[in-house]
Amino acid sequence: MSLSEIKSRIAAAETAAGRARGSVELIAVSKVQPNERVEAVLEEGHRVFGENRVQEAAGKWPEFREKFSDVDLHLIGPLQTNKARQAMELVNAIHSVDRPKLATTLARLAQELGHCPELFIQVNTGEEEQKAGILPKDSDGFIQECRALDLPIKGLMCIPPVDEEPSLHFALLAKIAERNGLSGLSMGMSGDFESAIALGATHVRVGSAIFGERAYSA
């Protein structure tokens, strides 16, 4: 599917939900994609991209930014505290703030560096043991902890369980955000971004629908 088709579908979903055109940011998920595919999307004029791992982002984006200086890079995968400094110097937004230790590290580095990317708190809406994220019951308290650390919390992020109806998880995330006065909702991927937009998503993370299947190395 082409980038323009995805953007048309996003625009149609915004209209159907009674939302302003352009109110949803498309994050093109470029993790493990060959550089030529990424560059083709850059050449089309798209500038907002998502990476899962700091190491992969560091190996790819400094060079692209020499040619495309206005790239807006989002880290959407788990962040280890020992990679936090590198992440903060590289990306514009982090979608996976998921534990107090990471929040404290980010706050310390923000003071030291004098800047901080936009932050999204990851909520484990499905309460899955293998998945990162704050549990829904702990989310209000963690949001307050992050605010007390003076962190720029933009919103919340979730990855619904693969075997459950995603809309239920999007609605839960939206409810947590609303009661905490957060405007950002990072939710919805290639297969479900339209239902995410209907429930208030401000950022959708689309990879395979734009780039094709991921090119994992053997």
Strand content: 15-25%
Mean pLDDT: 95
Order of helices and strands: HEHEHEHEHEHEHEHEH
Helix coverage percent? 40-55%
List low-pLDDT spans.
Answer: none
Radius of gyration: 17 Å
Shape: globular
- For the termini, the CA-CA separation is 25 Å
- Strands of the widest sheet, in order across it, are 7-6-5-4-3-2-1-8
- Compute the number of helices: 9
SSE blueprint and pairings:
Elements: H1 3-16, E1 25-29, H2 35-43, E2 48-51, H3 54-67, E3 72-75, H4 84-90, E4 93-97, H5 100-113, E5 118-122, H6 136-148, E6 153-157, H7 166-179, E7 184-186, H8 193-198, E8 203-206, H9 208-211
Parallel strand pairs: 1-2, 1-8, 2-3, 3-4, 4-5, 5-6, 6-7
How would you describe the overall organization of this protein?
The protein has 218 residues and is of the alpha/beta class. The two termini are 25 Å apart. The protein has an 8-stranded parallel sheet. The protein has helices at 3-16, 35-43, 54-67, 84-90, 100-113, 136-148, 166-179, 193-198, 208-211; strands at residues 25-29, 48-51, 72-75, 93-97, 118-122, 153-157, 184-186, 203-206. 44% of the residues lie in helices and 16% in strands.
Short description:
This protein has 218 residues and is of the alpha/beta class.
Which descriptors would you attach to this protein?
8 strands, 44% helix, 218 residues, alpha/beta, 16% strand, 9 helices
